[in-house]
Specification:
about 140 residues, mainly alpha, 5 helices, elongated
Length: about 140
């Protein structure tokens, strides 16, 4: 009797959890834009004779449902890269110099005095990108 009670509790737990698992799976498929592909696969598995009779239509539907997330995520990635480039350029265009020209010249002179020009450091081609708060 103890064994049957454990099995019954396991079945009841699975029945209680199943709607949540189905909801999570459907939500993930919808957010990843894979829900049309899942529905298409479910329809083709439930109606294989229809899919066999309308082979060209079923292949077209499957291709459209498979290409939709590919195009969606590709365009989203491209848009993200464009926004990133835009904001990088905007920050660099509006960045205020960290040091004035006099301070920069003073720091270069201090480095030359400390290390000398013999160490191979070329302070004439000083990287001006270091003078800004944002360096992308």
């Amino acid at each position: 009797m103890d064994f049957m009670l454990k099995q019954l509790l396991i079945v009841l737990a699975l029945l209680a959890i199943t709607p949540y698992i189905i909801g999570i799976v459907l939500t993930l498929l919808a957010k990843l834009r894979l829900l049309p592909l899942g529905v298409c696969g479910l329809v083709f598995s439930c109606f294989p004779t229809w899919a066999a009779m309308h082979r060209l239509l079923s292949i077209g539907l499957l291709a459209a449902c498979a290409l939709y997330p590919v195009f969606y995520w590709t365009l989203r990635f491209i848009r993200w890269k464009q926004e990133e480039q835009y904001y990088t350029n905007y920050l660099l265009a509006t960045a205020k110099p960290r040091f004035t020209e006099e301070e920069t010249a003073w720091m270069v002179a201090q480095r030359e005095k400390k290390y000398g020009v013999e160490d191979g450091t070329d302070f004439d081609s000083y990287d001006t990108g270091d003078e800004y708060w944002y360096n992308g």
